[in-house]
Design brief:
Structural class of chain B: alpha+beta
Radius of gyration of chain B: 33 Å
Structural class of chain A: alpha+beta
Largest sheet of chain A: 6 strands, antiparallel
Strand content of chain A: 5-15%
Helix content of chain A: 40-55%
Shape of chain A: elongated
Oligomer: heterodimer
Strand order of the largest sheet of chain B: 11-10-7-6-3-14
Strand order of the largest sheet of chain A: 10-9-6-5-2-13
Low-confidence stretches of chain B: 1-20, 524-528
Number of helices of chain B: 21
Radius of gyration of chain A: 32 Å
């Protein structure tokens, strides 16, 4: 590997010399390939009127190999900062209560539901398992003491992944800017950022996610560097590594999608450049395309699906996540009452059934011996949706004119049939009429009416199978059915709103006049008891893997968008993040407690913010200079390319990881900014380094050099010093709060919104 | 159709002017494109014909109508659905028609009284809709297409039933589309014009119509951004022209920036200025706004607060309004009822007097500000003002209880402290009723607490918790009023912590009985708070963007994907006794052809791009440029007006698609022309192309004709005829059973 690297550098340098020679002596005869390419480019420029800078492959002569000592220094410091006081505090901090718990679920093989894909939690569970954690700690709420339970393994795993981020940043910036000092600035910003330290030290998904994101970017950048030797071993290696990291990123959180976009855009640009290279035959281009499809689409897809396969294979016991999933899904889980159950396959008249709403966490159609109170529609018996299993969820299916006698072999209920549903316990019929529903005023009320089968025409419902045709039988568990009220034409609907005290805080059931097919108006038959019909084992109905995969994704996505901020809750807004407006309490509130506060090192973060602006100015100046064809020296030209190409990729990464949050309706937190912050820090390194190296624009050489050194020193010092004064944020504070006298953080509460 | 489309005649007009110094005779030469005149006339005929029919409220007229009425009465309102320019245009039409604002606008289908000028109400949108037809022609020409293609584009717009329906009523889409087309047309006119200064006039027109588009509906902003994008690419090319001098480039860039960025912003703000100047009376939406804003309107709060003392002093009687960012306002309130000893969940309370936030004006909202060091409850002469940082007590006017907080969990938010009116039960629960005044928008450290303008946090001295509206609602024992707590979180500036004095007077009564009488009497003394236009604008704009529309289901709402295939329609109006009805249904033929042209364009573009990349030029450079232009405007315009709807959470309707669709419709003739020039070879193929184009146009006409009863609402059709028009099974067409 090291040998390889060396070879490559040599090659790169050779090529560089060639190009720079060409530039200087353009009138000398060029090798045919080169001249062809140049012509092609000039031609294109003329025709499109815009410069296609992305296509020029220029490797500046100043490219520096990674400095081993620096790499070791970065590695050592980042591990030291992340592992220092790792076991403190010895209680659950913040979201550890979720992710630690989910790690335990994997060890116990209990099924649960989470809005994120499973890879991160599988890894946490695995790390815990390997380090001897037995999965017995309940992770009830933040602040609970771990006691004898072995929690440091899981924290250590996350910290190890978090420690690799500065190293990755170092390599990425080095590749993009070819400057060791830029790489070092970027790495230093991350090493000494209190926020990055804090978020790496606990059992959270973020360090794992960021590890994969940075891994993907690094492999992508390295892969781009292999351009000159396509289909070589290291070319393949970096390509496949990119794919693996992409699947890792999306496997931890859906935010990984953004890095996939980044890599995708980069790859598209790359392929576009290859297509424009007339040296390559179309077959070669097709090969390139296929290789990327394999490495960046098929491989990640395969790995991602594998992760889910592992997830479903490991979690085979019924647990707290059951209720989020459909009846068919639940039949897979050991311990669930649908597991290995057997019941008649098709719904028939005379059967006793339970009816479950298809909304996520939709309840069972339910009624009980209580009437709607005065003033809420007609004073008849309540009908609600109830989340728990109960004998009040049982209903009998009757024909409209039905007496109590049934033929020997029961008749099947078919699509389009008119049925009457009788509540088994109270013998009332499911009934609706033109009265306002209790919560959703535009819908009609649904009640229980009549007794022992007597009732009126408002008790009749037409049963329709979604996507079915007239005469289709109704499959237990699998068919989605709708109940259309015959007299008024409305559809049985569960609004999801909770009824007040009088309704025992169960969920409202209404009859909706809007006939759109939504899960709210779709139901399925879950339990089905009919002694006259032969039972079949439900294992026939077990969904196969792809169906489970699809269902779990739908449930996750809906769950994600369902995380709406409550009105009273103070919601973090995306614009808060880059200005470090407000952090997150990880542990402790008041004076006596051990407090950890997730907040970025303000010096670093504000520097990052300033550098975003600075970068915009610098890149504008650079590109206008190039566009106006201002005479620039070789070195200056290279700076421009570094800014526009390397910086461009980083800015794109930052934008992709930040801008989409503005469109999200779900609840947002400060820590969502950390992936974007990584890109922003790398950009800062690149921008400041270029700026400092451009000092000779205004100053004569020796002074410019002094300014460069001075600037670097000042930067390093301010980062170190700010880390020194803010380090208690990560490593724990005790004693009075910052605004009170005698606090260790006295005078450091620079913004009123910080809470330490 | 076979006549020469460019048949323009030269008119010579010689006019005698009595001045001998001028060239004699003065000659004015005018070229009139008769085709353009013809389509314009047809446009007006299709849009304005029988405009007052039906004489009833049609669909969203019921929504816009109420704002028009409010404009006529000059009553202030907040409409979160869009900026005011659109409403003002509608109101202007109504004003011209002599509408006095007296119509209830309560339901769709309600008959207009015969005295009302329905024509006036609907005229301006219809004119805008009619002008879209020639604009499409002109835009197509500027994009480099031939007169044939331009004619095709304008005819497609002309015979588009959905655009006709949307133009003929008091609705805003046609105005929006007009501004969008105008902005693109004038921008390309600017771009294509030779280097003269007068072309900047076109740029100014483009910028103004962009401002118009944004001012009518927020979605117009995406069109504006697209135009800005195109303009910046062009400017970038200009920068790249090395023959042009630096100075000239600099000046040109500056001019474009001023025209395209500064001017639209100014115009947008100006339309708010007009809005706020016109609407000067208080009205139904007052309560959404801050007290200062309300006080600037005539009537309403200003009548109450006019002449209140500005500086809050010890002994002042005040009502404290919460600044929490919710739609219902509320005031700090207390009443003769105690917290229940035990809550439903088993927690205990202090059983002291309840303190809540009450959304109605009430005598129990009055509090008296007391100096902890003194006993008296009246204002001294001269008054001693309360300043930032002062410690005060707050005494409830009617019950004489002190505002108190202590380490007892609040009823609905147990993590926060309870706030109560202190009652001494002799249970060693000490009185903790000192509050520090923290003015968060102060300019100086010792700023005086001012009525209405000061945002105040009341910080409890003993626990440093701040008085806060928790957002929870109390159950029955609290009469469903809003919960008030003291929360220790010292989050910097959150609106639920902020209170301001709304009503205020200097207390004069020494006795409780007198004071009660005083509290019941209305406030009286005089001062006038001023608020600048800019702060009013910012507040109103922010309110309009943050007020959430209530998520509501609608029978005819649809999702964006349904729009492409037009599987949905909207019933706009149904005659109360016959089958005459008006629907928003597009011309299905042109709808389908437009979609096809989109697919064809994308395939072609992909093909050309890939081939050009391999240095294979299929078409001449000029055609390629024109092909790109058409794509940027038509496909780009379609995308920016369509994609944003996928991210929107409010209720969507088919008419939201019309701006996007107008752009898409323009693509069809351009693609056909491109195919005709470059893809078809040989005479027979050309002839076949022409014939199919005519056939297409004819079928568009037939479709327009068959749906025109549903477009114009007349003539009435029989049930069978209506059923025959149900070309898509998902369409909702109503008919009465015979």
């Amino acid at each position: 590997m090291a040998k390889d690297e060396e070879d490559l550098t040599a090659l790169r340098q050779r090529k560089t010399c060639l190009i720079s020679e060409n530039k200087q002596t353009l009138h000398t005869p060029l090798p045919e390939a080169q001249s062809n390419r140049l012509e092609n480019e000039d031609d294109k420029q003329a025709s499109n009127g815009t410069s296609c800078w992305t296509e020029r492959s220029i490797t500046p002569p100043g490219a520096q190999p990674p400095n081993t000592i620096l790499v070791l220094l970065v590695l050592g410091l980042s591990f030291a900062t992340r592992f220092y006081k790792l076991a403190e505090p010895p209680h659950i901090c913040w979201d550890e209560t979720h992710f630690g718990k989910m790690g335990s679920y994997y060890i116990n093989r209990t099924f649960f539901f989470d809005v994120h894909p499973p890879l991160g939690k599988i890894l946490i569970g695995l790390a815990g398992y390997m380090t001897g954690y037995d999965g017995t700690f309940p992770f009830v709420k933040p602040g609970d003491k771990y006691g004898h339970h072995n929690y440091w393994g899981m924290r250590g795993f996350c910290a190890a992944l978090g420690s690799s981020l500065p190293v990755f940043a170092y390599f990425i910036v080095l590749e993009l800017s070819h400057s060791n000092s830029a790489a070092l600035i970027a790495a230093a910003l991350l090493i000494f950022d209190t926020g990055s330290i804090t978020i790496s030290q606990y059992i959270l998904l973020d360090p794992i996610l960021m590890f994969f994101i940075m891994g993907a970017v690094l492999s992508m950048v390295k892969f781009n560097q292999q351009k000159s030797r396509p289909f070589g071993a290291s070319w393949w290696l970096w390509l496949l590594l990119t794919g693996v990291n992409l699947s890792g990123a999306i496997g931890v959180k859906f935010v990984g999608l953004f890095v996939i976009l980044l890599v995708g855009l980069n790859t598209a640009g790359d392929l576009w450049a290859l297509l424009g290279d007339l040296q390559l035959s179309l077959v070669d281009v097709a090969k390139h395309l296929l290789a990327r499809v394999t490495g960046l689409i098929l491989l990640p897809l395969l790995l991602y699906v594998t992760v889910f396969a592992v997830h479903f294979a490991v979690l085979n016991k019924s647990g707290p996540g059951d209720g989020f999933f459909s009846s068919a899904f639940q039949s897979r889980l050991i311990g669930n009452n649908l597991h290995n159950a057997s019941m008649p396959k098709y719904l028939a008249y005379g059967s006793t059934i339970t009816v479950k709403n298809l909304r996520i966490a939709g309840g069972y159609l339910h009624s009980h011996w209580h009437l709607y109170p005065e003033g809420v529609g007609a004073k008849q018996q309540q009908v609600t949706a109830y989340l728990h299993k109960d004998y009040n969820n049982l209903w009998l299916v009757h024909k409209p004119d039905d007496g109590q006698d049934h033929p020997k072999t029961p008749e099947l209920v078919r699509h389009g049939d008119i049925v009457r549903l009788e509540h088994k316990e109270t013998t009332r019929n499911l009934h609706s009429h033109l009265q306002e529903a209790p919560m959703t005023r535009k819908h009609s009320q649904v009640t229980g009416y009549g007794i022992n089968g007597s009732g009126d025409s408002n008790d009749l419902w037409r049963l329709e199978v979604c996507g079915g045709r007239r005469g289709d039988p109704v499959k237990v568990l699998r068919s989605k059915v709708r109940f259309l009220h015959v007299a008024t034409g409305c559809v049985l609907y569960s609004s999801g709103k909770t009824l007040p005290k009088w309704g025992w805080e169960q969920v409202e059931v209404t009859c909706s006049p809007y006939l759109k097919e939504t899960p709210n108006s779709q139901w399925n038959i879950e339990d089905h008891i009919n002694p006259k019909l032969p039972n079949i084992s439900l294992s026939v109905l077990k969904p196969h893997f792809l169906e489970i995969l699809l269902e779990s994704h739908i449930v996750m996505i809906r769950g994600n968008s369902g995380l709406k901020p409550k009105d009273s809750e103070i919601n973090s807004r995306p614009w808060h993040w880059p200005i470090n407006y407000q952090g997150l309490r990880f542990s402790g509130v008041n004076e006596t407690e051990y407090r950890v506060y997730l907040l970025g090192n303000p010096v670093t973060w504000w520097l990052n913010l300033a550098c975003l602006g600075l970068y915009a100015v610098m890149v504008a100046v650079a590109s206008i200079a190039l566009q106006r064809d201002v005479h620039l020296g070789q070195k200056r030209r290279e700076h421009c390319w570094v800014l526009m190409r390397g910086g461009g990729q980083l800015v794109l990464g930052w934008l992709l990881h930040y801008a989409p949050f503005y469109t999200m309706g779900r609840i947002l937190y400060y820590h969502h900014y950390f992936p974007a912050m990584l890109f922003s820090s790398m950009l800062t390194g690149l921008t400041l380094d270029t700026l400092l190296h451009s000092a000779d624009l205004f100053l004569s050489p020796p002074r410019a050099d002094w300014l460069l050194r001075l600037g670097q020193m000042a930067l390093l010092f301010s980062v170190l010093y700010s880390f020194y004064i803010f380090h208690p944020l990560s490593y724990g504070m005790r004693g009075p709060l910052a605004h009170e006298p005698g606090s260790a953080m006295a005078g450091l509460k620079w913004m009123d919104s910080w809470e330490f | 159709m076979s006549k020469e489309p460019t048949s323009s005649i030269l008119l010579q007009a010689g006019t005698m002017l009595g001045l001998s110094s001028l060239k004699f005779p003065p000659v004015v030469k005018t070229e009139i494109n008769l085709v353009l005149v013809l389509v314009t006339v047809l446009g007006f005929w299709t849009r304005l014909r029988n405009l007052s029919y039906p004489r009833a409220v049609v669909f969203d007229e019921v929504y816009y109508g109420q704002f028009v009425s409010l404009y006529m009465k000059r009553v202030f309102f907040v409409d979160e659905s869009g900026p005011p320019l659109g409403h003002m245009i509608l109101a202007f039409g109504a004003y011209l028609g002599g509408f006095d604002g007296n119509f209830p606008w309560n339901r769709i289908g309600a008959e207009y009284p015969s005295s009302m000028s329905v024509w006036g109400l609907r005229l301006l949108p219809a004119v805008c809709g009619a002008l879209c037809v020639p604009l499409a022609y002109l835009l197509q020409l500027e994009l480099g297409s031939s007169h044939y293609a331009a004619l095709g584009a304008s005819l497609l717009i002309l015979m588009e039933n959905s655009l006709i329906v949307q133009s003929r009523f008091m609705l805003l889409e046609s105005v929006l589309i007009f501004f969008q087309l105008l902005s693109f047309f004038s921008y390309w006119r600017f771009y294509n014009a030779s280097n003269s200064c007068s072309r900047y006039l076109w740029l100014i027109v483009a910028a103004s119509s962009c401002a118009g588009a944004v001012g009518v509906k927020y979605v117009g902003v995406f069109t504006y951004l697209l135009l800005l994008g195109i303009a910046s690419v062009h400017t970038w090319q200009l920068i790249g022209q090395r023959a042009v001098s630096h100075l000239r480039v600099f000046v040109e860039c500056g001019c474009r920036a001023v025209c395209l960025v500064v001017l639209p912003v100014l115009l947008y703000v100006f339309c708010f200025y007009v809005h706020l100047t016109v609407l000067r009376h208080s009205g139904p939406h007052d309560q959404l706004m801050s007290s200062a804003f309300q006080a600037s309107l005539e009537g309403g709060l200003s009548r109450i607060t006019r002449g209140q003392p500005l500086e809050v002093a010890y002994g002042s009687q005040v009502t404290l309004r919460s600044s929490a960012s919710q739609t219902i306002p509320c005031w700090l309130h207390s009443h003769k009822a105690n917290y229940p000893i035990r809550y439903e969940d088993g927690r205990g309370s202090s059983h002291q007097q309840q303190v809540t936030c009450y959304p109605f004006k009430d005598v129990n909202n009055w509090w008296i500000i007391k100096d902890p060091g003194r006993q008296e409850l009246v204002v001294n002469t001269p008054p001693r003002p309360v300043r930032h940082g002062d410690v005060i007590q707050l005494l409830h006017g009617m019950t004489s209880r002190f505002l108190n907080s202590h380490d007892v969990a609040a009823p609905m938010s147990p993590h926060a402290q309870e706030v109560s009116g202190y009652i001494d039960f002799n249970v060693s629960m000490v009185m903790q009723n000192l509050w520090r005044v923290d003015i968060s928008n102060r300019e100086a450290e010792s700023e005086v607490w001012k009525t209405i303008v000061s945002d105040v946090r009341l910080v409890h001295v003993n626990t440093s918790a701040a008085l806060k509206l928790s957002g929870g609602t109390l159950p029955e024992w609290g009469f469903g009023q809003l919960e008030v707590v003291a929360d220790r979180v010292s989050r910097a500036h959150h609106s639920s912590l902020v209170w301001n004095v709304e009503e205020h007077r200097y207390g004069t009564s020494h006795e409780q009985k007198e004071r009660e009488v005083e509290l019941h009497s209305p406030t009286h003394i005089d001062v006038h708070p001023n608020i600048s236009f800019l702060s009013k604008f910012i507040e109103l704009q922010r309110k309009m963007l943050t007020v959430k529309q209530e998520e509501s289901e609608h029978k005819y709402s649809s999702c964006p994907l349904e729009w492409i295939s037009m599987t949905t329609n909207i019933v706009y109006w149904l005659h109360h006794s016959t089958n005459a009805q008006i629907h928003l249904i597009g011309n299905l033929v042109s709808w389908g052809m437009a979609n096809l042209s989109l697919a064809a364009y994308q395939l072609l573009a992909l093909w050309y791009l890939l081939r050009r990349r391999r240095a294979i030029r299929d078409i001449p450079e000029a055609s390629w440029c024109q092909f790109q232009r058409v794509g940027v405007v038509c496909v780009g315009g379609w995308l920016v007006n369509f994609l944003p709807f996928f991210l929107m959470e409010n209720t969507l309707f088919l008419y939201h698609y019309l701006p996007a669709y107008t752009f898409l419709l323009q693509l069809l003739p351009a693609v056909l022309e491109h195919a005709h020039t470059h893809l078809l070879s040989g005479k027979s193929q050309h002839r076949a192309g022409c014939v199919s184009a005519f056939a297409g146009l004819y079928s568009v006409y037939l479709c327009y004709k068959s749906f025109s009863p549903l477009t114009y609402g007349s003539p009435e059709m029989s049930a069978n005829q209506l059923q025959a028009l149900r070309w898509q099974p998902s369409w909702d067409i109503l008919y009465r059973r015979p």
